[in-house]
Structure formats: structure tokens, C-alpha cells
Amino acid sequence: MDNKHYANELDASFWNERWINKQTGWDVGYATPPITEFMKQYENKHAAILIPGCGNAYEAEFLIANGFTNITLLDIAEEAVKSLTEKFQSSTQINIVCDDFFHHQKKYDVIIEQTFFCAQVLERREEYIKKVHSLLNNNGQLIGVLFGITFEKEGPPFGGDIITYQQLFEPYFSIKTMEPCYNSIAPRAGAEIFIHLIRK
Predict the structure, then answer these.
(1) Most exposed: 12, 40, 115, 172, by fewest CB within 10 Å?
(2) What's the predicted TM-score (pTM) here?
(3) Is the pLDDT of residue 110 over 90?
(4) What's the half-sphere exposure (Cβ side, CA atoms, 13 Å) at 162?
(5) Is 49 helix (H, G, I), strand (E, B) or coil?
């Protein structure tokens, strides 16, 4: 296990404090169309799905409503996990884990990426990609959205562009789709890149 630490790393206490103080500006209150439209077409309702850095996990509500049965929610913030435990207490389709993503050990068919990659400090991006690769089964899929712009203020979030993302992901994934989102919500229009990647 690589236990490297970075000077500007965002740890559990950082995220927990954001939750306690309700500094959750990334939360739009519902699952957004880039992810819901893709998952509507996903046929295997028993696929093992992970949503890392899940926050309020609106995507999980959508997945349950659409018949998915095996969803793991992972967040490092204890406050988020408390809220999730209450929210999904009667949902047998949901497994909730309070853990550091980089320490998590399990296998999945699909990992849903919603603002989590872009919440990582830049120094951890390759580590994130390697970790996703290790968590996916053969031909497992990473789907979701990345920010396709550069932010003026210090992150999180941290942005980027398609060329940079291609260079990062291509050693580990076959890129089926990596393009500007056509169905972003209005506040994020022109700022998101949809990804659909297959584990090599």
C-alpha cells in the first residue's frame, strides 16, 4: 500500500468539516442527466456498482428506482455516511462504506464518476486511475463526468482538458467516449466531459 502524503492533500477532516458546515456547493440536489441517461441504457441490473466520494448519492436513488440491486456508496466523510445510513436504511440494494477510496478493496463492474476525480489534488490523479483500474473486474467500466475547464481559484474542484485526460487514462483504459457533454445541467453547460472507459 502506498501511504504517500501530499502537502495539499484533502483528507477526511477537510471533507467532514465541509459537511458539518454545509459547504457542499457541488451538490445540485439530484442525479444529473449525463449519468442517468447512460445508466438507463445499462442492461445488467445486478452489476456491482461503486459510487466513490458519493456525497448525498442522488445517483443511487436513481439506480434503485431503475431496478439496480448491487450498489456500494463510498465516502470518507463520517457526516456524509451518517446521512446516507439514515437515508438508505430500508434499501437492501445499498452497501454504505466509510473509507478512504485509496484503501478500499473490492471488485466492481461499474464505477460511477461524479465530481470525485476532480476533487483529488493533481498529484493523485494517476494514483486514482490505477486504483479505479484495480477495483474494476476485467472489462469493467468507468463512466461519468470530469470538468473540462481550468478553474481560476484554487480547488477543489480541479479541472483539465480532453488531451490531458486521454494521456492519463489511455495506459489503463480503452476510451469508448471522452467528449464534451451534450446534456449537462445549465450551470455546468460547456464545462463537463463525459467519459465511458473500459478497463484494459
Answers:
(1) 40
(2) 0.86
(3) yes
(4) 13
(5) strand
